[in-house]
Amino acid sequence: MNEFDQLYREVILDHYKNPRNHGLLDPADARAEGQNPLCGDEITVSVRLGEGDVIEEVGFDGRGCAISQAATSMLTDLVKGKTALEVAEMPKEALLDELGIPLTPVRLKCAILGLGVIKVALHKAKGTPLPEEWGTSTRDLVLD
Amino acid sequence: MAVTTQPKLDAQRIRADFAYLEELVNGKPFAYLDSAVSTQKPRQVLDAMREFYEHSYTNVHRSVYRLAERATEGFEGARQKVAAFVNAPSEREVIFTRSSTEALNLVAYAWGLDNLGKGDLVVVTELEHHSNFVPWQYVAKRTGATFRHIPIDDQGELQLDVLDSLAREGTVKVVANNLVSNSLGTINPVEKLAAWAHEQGAIMVVDAAQAAPHRPIDVQALGCDFLAFSSHKMCGPSGVGALWGRRELLEEMSPFNLGGEMIRSVSIDKTTWNELPYKFEAGTPAIAEAYGFGVAIDYISEIGLEAIERHEQELVTYAMGRLAGLDWVTVYGPPADRRAGIVSFNVDGVHPHDVSQLLDWEGIAVRGGHHCTQPLMTRLGVSATTRASFYVYTIPEEVDRLVDGLHKVKKSLG
């Protein structure tokens, strides 16, 4: 397999061109946005929770590279039916395994941006734990 | 009758000075089209720095032994070269900093905090790099001054017709602008802005990080008050930059960093400041780097700044001509004759990150991102662009490879 096919494998391109769960939910029970300051990727994630804080619906919007958008699209499928706590505790490897592509450190940040954003959304709305690595990588960096 | 010939730069001969060109990337010759982020370094600079470290190195301005004298001579010799490079009236007006960013922060803090307040206006432009934008935004907020910007038109050029209405909003105290935009390559009318700034009683702060490597600079002709630039963008080492400032302003200013070297005398009750430029150079400076900066200035001066400017003009004209033939590529910024060797563009439907990833596999290095100019990206309505930028070692064949690579990008992801 050449490099292109390794990184932009068919399933990634499919999620990039036909993102799942695209569009923000209104109203939503949890919502957050995040940027990757290195390259300008932007993701907003909104979530509706059911009984026992189970994720019933999730919608995202954003712009950025194929990896960031496809990874977030795959993530939205992955988190549906999980509880807020399960998503808060989900390791990045769970998403990276799903992606199944080799990533350099810079591209890794693109891939896990959406996961960080949903963790922040759930933390803000439900007080789920947010380990420091996620809090600092996705916090809004607005001067005030 | 005298015959004047325009000196032309021999890129093929220059390429022999750069070891990186000997390397293959992915089995292909390496086309480095990212000189605006930082240039590669010629052997002459690297060899001179090694020689300096081996035979002339210790701390500067301290000890009396011979080695210390040689180190100080090398360091101060570099300051003279920097001063001459921008036609500064005196080398005492040249302060070595860590980078252009630090130089601009020095002005924002050391001048801004003491001279700005409510009712004052700080004016930047939509084209600024964050380094000449964020410090002013921050210091304006700290002092209660009003922060305003000069917008650009659709070609990425400053709309100077807003100046009159800006002046009515308050007392303009600072005008900050880059001489060349790092994102679009726009060459800005700094002389005009400086004249307007002085009519308002304001200081003119010029970020020349992207201009100094590419065209002759004369601070006296520009009429500015401060000018910052950086060694690493002009064939020198990273870790050192320079601030030129008008003497009377530097004399009046409070210091920026405090500590060793910048003092005249220290007692429990009181400290007094050293003379210029040392008042602004606390701590051990980047000694060998400053020396290397001077060697880099010699290197590009020998090639000739006019010849470099012309070489880039040819490359950018050629690149824009070729990109104009691709209707799925959008190029941002002014026409070729009003820009330096930088071309920012987007491929329809493909994020710049993906563009640069695919080009990397072709052995082509370009930058995909916001280039530290997020307000500009917002104005252009994009989150990022792909930027190709050229320097003395760039050849037209590399532009051809870029265009071939873009066809592959379009085929794969477009």
For the sheet with most strands of chain A, the description reads: 3 strands, antiparallel
Helical amount among residues of chain B, as a percent range? 25-40%
Number of domains of chain A: 1
* CATH class descriptor of the largest domain in chain B: Alpha Beta
CATH topology of the largest domain in chain B: Aspartate Aminotransferase, domain 2
Strand content of chain B: 15-25%
Q: Give the CA-based shape of chain B.
A: globular
Characterize the overall form of chain A.
globular
Q: Whole-number radius of gyration of chain A?
A: 14 Å
Q: What structural category do the secondary elements of chain B indicate?
A: alpha/beta
CATH class category label of chain A: Alpha Beta
Quaternary structure: heterodimer
- Supply Rg of chain B: 22 Å
Strand and helix map with partners:
The complex is a heterodimer of chains A (144) and B (414).
Chain A: H1 3-7, H2 10-17, E1 30-36, E2 41-49, E3 55-63, H3 66-79, H4 84-88, H5 92-99, H6 105-126, H7 132-138
Antiparallel strand pairs in A: 1-2, 2-3
Chain B: H1 11-15, E1 24-25, E2 28-29, E3 31-32, H2 43-55, H3 66-85, E4 94-97, H4 100-115, E5 120-125, H5 134-143, E6 146-150, H6 163-167, E7 171-178, H7 190-199, E8 203-207, H8 219-222, E9 226-230, E10 241-245, H9 247-252, E11 263-266, E12 271-273, H10 287-303, H11 305-324, E13 329-332, E14 342-347, H12 352-361, E15 364-365, E16 367-369, H13 374-380, E17 385-389, H14 396-413
Parallel strand pairs in B: 3-15, 5-6, 5-7, 7-8, 8-9
Antiparallel strand pairs in B: 1-2, 4-10, 9-10, 11-12, 13-14, 14-17, 16-17
In short:
The complex is a heterodimer of chains A (144) and B (414). Chain A has helices at residues 3-7, 10-17, 66-79, 84-88, 92-99, 105-126, 132-138; strands at 30-36, 41-49, 55-63. By secondary structure, chain A is an alpha+beta fold.
